Amino acid sequence: MVQELRQGEEILLPENPNPNLKDYEEARRTFKWEDVEKEFTWYHTGKVNMAYEAIDRHAESWRKNKVALIYVDREREVKYTFAEMKEHTARVAAALTSLGLEKGDRVFTFLPRSPELYVGILGIIKAGLVAGPLFEAFMETAVKDRLMDSGAKALITNAELLPRVPYRDLPDLEHVIVVGAKDLPPSDGKTKFYHYEELVAKAPRDFEPVWLTREDGMILHYSSGTTGKPKGIYHVHNAMIQQYITGKWVLDLKEEDVYWTTADPGWVTGTSYGIFAPWLNGATNLVRGGRFSPDDWYSTIEKYRVTVWYSAPTAFRMLMGAGEEVAKKYDLSSLRHVLSVGEPLNPEVVRWGYRVYKQRIHDTWWMTETGAHICVNFACLPIKPGSMGKPIPGVEIGILDDEGNELPPNTPGNLCIKTPWPSMFRKVWNNEAKYQEYFRFPGWYISGDVAMKDEDGYYWFLGRADDVIKTSGYRVGPFEIESKLVEHPAVMEAGVIGKPDPERGEIIKAFVVLREGYQPSEELKKELMEFVKKGLSAHAVPREIEFRDKLPKTRSGKIVRRVLKAWELGLPAGDLSTLED
Ligand code: WT7
């Protein structure tokens, strides 16, 4: 397949006359991380806090009246300067501190994209606490698992989402701060409830950031693997080094830019590149709330003269599906740099973007675990549509075989990264064994992706080595969905796989074995879909369900998803010698 993609050897040449990173090869030869460190205040003072570097530092400079945040949705438009962001985040930090929360405590947000969410995350970090952003679409089980595992002590949420917070079942959750509530549940001996508005209004507008070291905790993102519940990927303040420099090199942020990423802070793109990278670079950062809509999205670019736009293949495919005519209704001429992340960016989409937006879409590869960009298409280099480009200066990628030996170019293997890099995750929360699994090859981090490098040093994504599913850019673990399905009284066993889909990348398909006394039916399928939606979230719903008499299993009883996949795709199932009968 990759050969096919490469047959045309088509490339798109650089068009940006003045990119921040001008000479890639030179930077790879000469770049040192220490050069970036010198640009931070802490390099000189020894006092570290992301919120200071991203907000306060600018608020204390000539940028103080520059717009930092533009928040828009169908109802409102809110703009905050860096000085205002400093004050708002100070109030949140002071309020949290007044509740007795201390350095390292986990404080979660469960909010839709809104000014309160962005202020909240930075306020948490300013107070020396570890922020845990939850995606607003999560249902009760998903919320509970994450708050429970992290031992979160406080939560900032809103009145609509509060019913999905099972606070009585969360022994560590002491404080729940609610935006826009009329009434609050009665505080009991364990959990106290607060009106966000009151708490923040009472708090002082001056708050000296809690000073930390570079290795103190900053953010905890839950992300899926193949087995077990989502894991807490823990990042420390040191990540800012790489987030800052990739904001400069890869997003190519300049002083006059209006930058927009469509990603939600519930996912790592929405924090690393929705909060940290843009504000570390002093950029004007636009946030659009609400759901995907081609007209709303294009009119956002037109109205706010967005210059740098970071989205995902699934969104670009949907915009493509909406048709060229919709794009033509709007003036998109402000765009100068467009990027994509989350799943493979189809060459077809790159070609379409080039024709319709007159923009090269720059694919970027990285993961929750990497904290920042690793392999990208730079503004200064030619783009080979279908390739995810080259490693950033200061980072080395290896393609390794299953024993950990490096492979030559044009050979598919495990995509690994030489350890360490500044924004590397520092633990899997509560699970050191899981953390160590990533580092089985000495000196390397194993990504779980299969890729290869071509003779020009470009990397090509080939697939996942494991069963992780990527649907509409969301990373979903099959195990979590299987576990939810078997909670339903009709389900004896379930096996879940990703099935290729032209728009969503993959859709979730479940193979289900029913218990005695239950008959397969369309209604039952609908009921199971609804059950997963209510229990986990809409993006975890299997869009296809197939009933089977039994599932392929190893002798030790593990469902073999590789065989399910082969069934689905009509491919040979491979070696079956370790399966039961
Ligand atoms: C997995 C990580 C980090 C931002 C969002 C995703 C897949 C990510 C690409 C790309 C092909 C990609 C990989 C990776 N992925 N970017 N440019 N081309 N695949 O973060 O949820 O942690 O998922 O997403 O499979 O391992 P994530």
From TrEMBL:
Superkingdom in the source lineage: Bacteria
Keywords: Acetylation, ATP-binding, Ligase, Nucleotide-binding
Record-annotated AMP-dependent synthetase/ligase domain positions: 56-424
Gene Ontology CC terms, in alphabetical order: cytosol
GO biological process terms, semicolon-separated: acetyl-CoA biosynthetic process
Example GO molecular function: ATP binding
Domain AMP-binding enzyme C-terminal: 480-558
Keyword Ligase among record annotations: yes
Keyword Acetylation attached: yes
Similarity field: Belongs to the ATP-dependent AMP-binding enzyme family.
PANTHER family named in the record: ACETYL-COENZYME A SYNTHETASE, ACETYL-COENZYME A SYNTHETASE 1
Protein name (database record): acetate--CoA ligase
Species this chain originates from: Brockia lithotrophica
